[in-house]
Amino acid sequence: MGSTTNIFLFACIFTFTLWNNIQLSVENEFTAHYSSNFSSLPELRVLNLSHNLIRELDFNVFKFNEKLECLDLSHNNLWNMCCQTLASLRHLDLSFNKFKTLPICQEFGNMLNLEYLGLSATMIRKSDFRGSSMKALILEHIRTKVFYFSQDILYKAFSDMNIENLTISDAYMPHMLCPSHTSLFQYLDFSYNALTDEVFKNCDTLIHLKMLILQRNQLENLSKVSSMTSKMKSLKHLEISRNLLYYDENENHCHWVETLAKLNLSSNKLTDSVFGCLPINAQILDLQNNQITTVPKDITELKALKELNIAFNRLTELPGCSHYRGLELLNIEENSILTPSSDFFHSCQNIRELRGGHNPFQCSCELRDFVNFEKKSGGRLVGWPESYVCEYPDGLKGTQLKDFQLSELSCNTTLLLVIALVVTVVVVAVTSFLCIYFDVMWYLKMMWQWTQTKSRVRKSHPEDLQSILHFHAFISYSERDSLWVKNHLIPNLEKEDGSVQICLHERNFIPGKSIVENIINCIEKSYKSIFVLSPNFVQSEWCHYELSFAHHKLFSESCNSLILILLEPIPQYLIPARYHKLKALMAKRTYLEWPKEKNKHGLFWANLKVAINTNLPVSTEMIVV
Ligand SMILES: *[C@@H]1O[C@H](CO)[C@@H](O)[C@H](O)[C@H]1NC(C)=O
Ligand SMILES: *[C@@H]1O[C@H](CO)[C@@H](O)[C@H](O)[C@H]1NC(C)=O
Ligand SMILES: *[C@@H]1O[C@H](CO)[C@@H](O)[C@H](O)[C@H]1NC(C)=O
Ligand SMILES: *[C@@H]1O[C@H](CO)[C@@H](O)[C@H](O)[C@H]1NC(C)=O
Ligand SMILES: *[C@@H]1O[C@H](CO)[C@@H](O)[C@H](O)[C@H]1NC(C)=O
């Protein structure tokens, strides 16, 4: 092992904070000389003996002072130590004495309450730190004043230490050497120093290092830092927050060691490009307080990523999880996110916790789904509801998202369309139903035809309407009652001298014209319209139409031109509801009833003829074909 001859000057003041389990070995050789006795002061807690001329001290003098907490022996002439465990001691200052080597006692390791140990020496020997049992050394708040030697020697002494944990923190340390041979270091904390990108460059001896803390140093080039880790085969956790790190996306030179699982990059100068330089097996990434505006879409997949912190950046939208599907925790507090979409929760299936508060939320329809998601799933948003407050629009500023409400209808365009569609369909359906039920279309068509025919007739015979009357009567009947019409009605009306002319559709219809037109023609050219009513009639569509035409004429010319013959009684229920006109007519008007008894037939025909002849103003010569 290394010899004790490797001595170098260390003309500086050291302030050590000893960890409880430090154990140091030093060969002791002392002379006991009691210069004082404090046994009569069992309550003694603080003893300040600084700035005296004490040359030797045996700690045994304090063995009755069980409550002694603070012992200041600085600025004396002590040159040798007689060690003793003082269990209650918290503060022990031995600095500025005449010790040649560091006065380190093994007993210090047993002083479990010791928080402060002040030491100084004119020399440091490697053996000072040698021990079979020493595992960790912590040096904090070191203020070096004067160096009379090459710093490299000091760095070498530290870097070649055979211990597991080394902390040199807040020591203005500008550099540290790579251990010259395979090192035992597992944990290195060099935070609050002045280390640059050159630290541990091309270093391949730190193969057991698991955790490296370089918080608050002068690191700048992220790609260099990644290369630094490439040979640290066991490195799991790298803490490089609060440096000056940036990454230029054109570089594309990142070589992180594959074992790296936790990386703290917070408080640096990183931009969106940092996503092109991340360790692929990272599980925990801290990127808070940088200058990130978006998480680019084309980043390498980070399959293992569980925790991602992007708080205190400049994000404008919630990043999805397409590149890190296993994400469980995401922090995006204090960014510039206006309207986080609830799609986030669909792409981030494993998310357990989302910290999204303190963003300038814009309370609009787009935000509703996000709010509803929290209300439904509950508890995934950390800080809900007090950290989630509307910033825009001005009218809602300060309103908590949980109290922000917009009606389903004002936001959901699909619903709005569906409702409009349903209303339209209903209106169309109701209108159609009414049209069909009341035969509106048919009536319209009929009116139109009627008007057309009339105007045509007027044009051809403008001089006198009377001159177009060719017939005494038009007979409307159901085809099923045709036997009665042909065998009884017509022969009886037309017999004698042909003074009564009847318009019959088989006989007088003009071929080539539509049925409706023929019917209208027939009605137009006849004084009277005779309707042979029977259950058959009511069930015939055509008969009903004919009745409607005739009825229309009746009103338009306000003359009594309708004659109803009731061939067979018609029960009211047989008349379809939509034939309300027929119903009304039958209810109001008197009709001639066809008698069953033969002897009454004569009277019937007489009555009928009277009805036809009543208003017959012109003679037979007007009948022209
Ligand atoms: C110190 O005190 C102890 C115990 O009271 C006593 O035995 C010893 O003689 C004292 N020593 C001196 C130098 O007075
Ligand atoms: C002890 O006394 C000196 C001089 O009076 C003072 O500077 C020092 O701070 C004191 N030590 C403690 C621990 O209070
Ligand atoms: C070294 O540091 C690690 C991490 O802080 C700790 O868990 C471990 O107990 C330390 N080991 C020693 C020997 O102090
Ligand atoms: C960062 O380091 C890499 C690798 O050494 C180098 O190629 C690159 O130029 C450096 N970037 C800057 C901006 O200095
Ligand atoms: C990263 O470092 C900062 C301090 O610089 C600390 O507040 C934060 O908790 C660390 N992040 C993680 C994940 O440990």
TrEMBL record:
Q: Which residues cross the membrane?
A: 415-438
- Tell me which positions the record assigns to the signal sequence: 1-19
Q: Which UniProt keywords apply?
A: Glycoprotein, Immunity, Inflammatory response, Innate immunity, Leucine-rich repeat, Membrane, Receptor, Repeat, Signal, Transmembrane, Transmembrane helix
The UniProt record lists the TIR domain at 469-612
Give its localization: Membrane
Looking up Pfam families in the UniProt record yields:
LRR_1, LRR_8, LRRCT, TIR
Task: Output the Gene Ontology terms for molecular function.
Answer: lipopeptide binding; signaling receptor activity; Toll-like receptor 2 binding
Per the record, membrane topology reads:
Single-pass type I membrane protein
Superkingdom, taxonomy of origin? Eukaryota
Any Gene Ontology CC annotation: plasma membrane
Looking up Gene3D superfamilies in the UniProt record yields: Ribonuclease Inhibitor, Toll/interleukin-1 receptor homology (TIR) domain
Q: Any one Gene Ontology biological process term?
A: inflammatory response
Q: Which family does it belong to?
A: Belongs to the Toll-like receptor family.
Query: Under what name is this protein listed?
Result: Toll-like receptor
Its lineage reads: Eukaryota, Metazoa, Chordata, Craniata, Vertebrata
Its gene is LOC112122853
